[in-house]
Design brief:
alpha/beta, disordered N terminus, 13% strand, five-stranded parallel β-sheet, single chain
């Protein structure tokens, strides 16, 4: 498709709008941060995070916050990130953003998740312990943690319920499920799938970050054999 034809189509119908539906520690910052470098994409931040502030985004109206973030732009695609559940002070004031998303099936959804919830929980625990939710590559002495079996069961239920509650309302949306493990192990091919899904040219994008945790789970979790049960690696 020529550039002039693409521009004519976009001007008639507007940019493709999309949401990255994720949970913490599923690679969402890696994916969205890398997509941001695509010249055809306007990638907004995590709009339901109290730390993400912009003068044009209201503090008390989630629906309007959602609409403004995905408003028309000079790009072919515009997107944002929304965690399925993010317990935070005042988070409920933005809940209507999910109503706005559910009411607009033209918005595409990239469902990013992690197959190993044990690895996700470990990453979450370590980020909290270090108080470092972004780059941790400069941390020389990485913590070793212990995971309680009850905590893991709770975390699995929490993740499942959070995702299911959101996805149940998005049955009429176009949804692309992407596992963190696939993104990690097959970066180029999975990014191409994502770019085609949001309707932009599938150019090669370098990862915006490198993995902070390279140890096997057996070295991260002191009681790994006890909690893993051979089924969640």
């Amino acid at each position: 498709m020529t550039l002039n034809l693409r521009n004519a189509i976009r001007q008639r119908s507007g940019p493709i709008r999309f949401v990255v539906l994720s949970q913490p520690r599923t690679g969402s910052s890696l994916l969205t941060g890398s997509i941001r470098w695509h010249p055809q994409v306007l990638m907004q931040g995590e709009i339901l995070n109290r730390h993400y502030q912009r003068p044009d985004l209201p503090d008390d109206d989630g629906a309007q916050r959602f609409r403004v973030a995905l408003s028309s732009s000079d790009h072919d695609a515009v997107g944002c990130k929304m965690h399925a559940c993010q317990p935070d002070a005042g988070f409920e004031r933005w809940e209507s953003a999910w109503d706005a998303l559910a009411d607009d099936p033209s918005v595409k959804v990239i469902h990013l998740y992690r197959r190993s919830m044990l690895a996700q929980l470990a990453s979450w625990r370590i980020a909290g312990q270090l108080n470092r939710w972004g780059d941790q590559t400069d941390v020389a002495e990485r913590p070793v943690i212990e995971v309680d079996d009850g905590e893991l069961k709770w975390f699995r239920r929490f993740n499942a319920i959070a995702y299911q509650a959101r996805l149940n309302r998005l049955r009429h949306h176009s949804i692309l499920p992407i596992a963190y493990e696939s993104l990690r192990d097959n970066w180029d091919s999975m990014v191409e799938v994502v770019l085609r899904f949001i309707g932009v040219d599938p150019i090669r994008l370098e990862p915006c970050a490198i993995r902070s945790e390279t140890r096997p789970l057996e070295q991260v979790i002191s009681n790994y054999q006890e909690v893993a049960g051979g089924t969640d690696v």
